[in-house]
Amino acid sequence: MHNDNSISNSTGAAKKPNMIMKYNATKGSVDTMDKKTENYTVARRCIRWPLVVFYSLLNIGGLNAQIIFQENTSIKKTRLVFLKTLARQLMQEQIEYRWTLDCLPKQIKFRLNEYCNIRRPNVGEIQRVREASGRCTFCDHSKDRKATKVCTNCARLICRDHIIETCPDCFEAS
Q1: Could you say which residues of the chain have pLDDT below 50?
Q2: Using only C-alpha atoms, what is the Rg of the chain?
Q3: Of the candidates 100, 173, 108, 162, the residue with the CA atom closest to the CA atom of residue 135
Q4: Residues 27, 32, 35, 38: is their CA dihedral positive or negative?
Q5: H/E/C letters for each residue in the chain?
Q6: How far apart are CA 161 and CA 138, in angstroms?
Q7: CA 34, 25, 57, 89: dihedral to nearest 10 degrees?
Q8: With contact defined as beta carbons under 8 Å apart, do 110 and 133 qualify?
Q9: How many CB atoms lie under 10 A from the CB of residue 59?
Q10: Are 136 and 159 in contact (CB under 8 A)?
Q11: Would you list the domain boundaries of the chain?
């Protein structure tokens, strides 16, 4: 097609090449895509061209995902709502994984819980999972204290010296 010198029959007296006709037929779609992606874009100001290409690919991917979603489900969502739900669904698995990490600070776990409504397992579920005894997580290994109780938040083993007894109302308030 690129090396072909054929003339289009539909141009009449203008005698334009097929290459020009193909370009004219498809150039409007790029402008349409640019208009749709410029309102909600992931692009930031940057100098490095690989980052610009990456941002452009993300914008095009988001637009294509919305078009495919609308064609398959017949559900019309605004672009903003669609992109927000897409972002949440893409992050959900990673957030749930991070929530299970023992080293994650308590405040971050609570924020993750608020953001994604991750269900905290109750005490009975955790104790069924960890019924075996072992060393207390907080004691020195030289003390070799055995523990059978587990933390309700992170399921780590805790000996009697490190358990803080609270009533359910006070625990929920903290």
Answers
A1: 123, 125-130
A2: 29
A3: 162
A4: negative
A5: CCCCCCECHHHHHHCCEHHHHHHHHHHHHHHHHHHHHHHCCCCCCCCCHHHHHHHHHHHHHHHHHHHHHHHHHCCCCCHHHHHHHHHHHHHHHHHHHHHCCCCCCHHHHHHHHHHHCCCCCCHHHHHHHCCCCEECCCCCCCCCCEECEECCCCCCEECHHHCCCCCHHHHHHC
A6: 10
A7: 80
A8: no
A9: 19
A10: yes
A11: 1-33, 121-173
pLDDT of residue 37: 87
User: Who's near 98: CB < 8 A, 6+ residues apart?
Assistant: 104, 108, 112
Q: Report the C-alpha gap between 5 and 114 in whole angstroms.
A: 64
Q: Which of 170, 173, 174, 145 is nearest to 160 (CA)?
A: 145
What does the pLDDT look like over 17-43, one tens digit per residue?
877 888 888 888 888 888 888 888 888
AA identity, residue 9: N
Tokens of 46: 């940057």
Structure tokens at 125: 């579920």
Q: Given the DSSP bridges, would you call strands 157-158 and 149-150 parallel, antiparallel or unpaired? A: antiparallel
Phi, psi of 146 (to 5 degrees): -85, 150
At 166 the pLDDT is 63
